[in-house]
Specification:
alpha/beta; globular; 47% helix; 5-stranded parallel beta sheet; two-stranded antiparallel ribbon; 212 residues
Length: 212
């Protein structure tokens, strides 16, 4: 099988490896306008607590250089800007639509963080460039997670911290309820609010396919 024909997970379906990035881009192009609203609704606001824990465990101090990968609407970049110099923070995302919303939020808050459209598998930064690297709810959508993690390690300074915030498996007792919520309620609500049930079906499936 050629590299172009190699099959890879896209939720519960298989797609050609070379086409996954484009299909993921289509998902986030679609959900970008209502992404923050849907996060609040679908997680009952809990995503804010999860991100707060990530921020706390990063132990960022003034002067540190920080890279936020798959930054999207820049929630983490904004929070970290209150803990270190905003100009020391770089927010990246492969998706232009998502990152454009993040850039607007930063500008509205007067935060001069760097915003760069970049592929996590091919980061445009020198070795040992950052004290902290973060990625929240993004790594499961990457085509080659091993390459992305290797790039994160490459740009991280010796003694630095990489923090990956991602979904995992729920408790067995909750699984029937969580499955109903994920595979029925989430797509239904995505269709009603964001006008795209299919993208929210993929997002639920991608959580299940991600290693725990």
């Amino acid at each position: 099988m050629s590299e172009a024909e190699k099959q890879i997970d896209f939720g519960f379906t298989k797609v050609e490896e070379a086409k996954k990035e484009e299909k993921v881009r289509e998902v986030f192009d679609s959900v970008a306008p209502k992404y923050d609203l849907m996060n609040d609704i679908l997680s009952f606001g809990m995503h804010r607590g999860w991100k707060h824990r990530c921020i706390r465990e990063a132990e960022v101090t003034r002067g540190m250089k920080l890279l936020d990968i798959a930054s999207g609407t820049c929630d983490l970049a904004i929070a970290f800007a209150h803990r270190t110099n905003a100009e020391n923070i770089t927010a990246t995302d492969i998706n232009y639509e998502m990152l454009s919303y993040g850039r607007q939020r930063l500008e509205q808050l007067g935060l001069n963080c760097q915003v760069i459209q970049a592929d996590a598998e091919h980061l445009p930064f020198e070795d040992n460039a950052f004290d902290r690297v973060t990625v929240s709810f993004g790594i499961r959508n990457m085509t080659h997670k091993d390459r992305a993690l290797a790039e994160m390690l490459r740009v991280l300074k010796p003694g630095g911290k990489l923090l990956v915030l991602e979904f995992s498996k729920c408790a067995p007792l909750l699984k029937p309820f969580y499955d109903f919520y994920s595979f029925h309620f989430m797509p239904w609500l995505g269709g009603k609010i964001a006008g795209d049930a299919d993208s929210y079906r993929y997002l639920a499936e991608s959580i299940r396919m991600h290693p725990d």
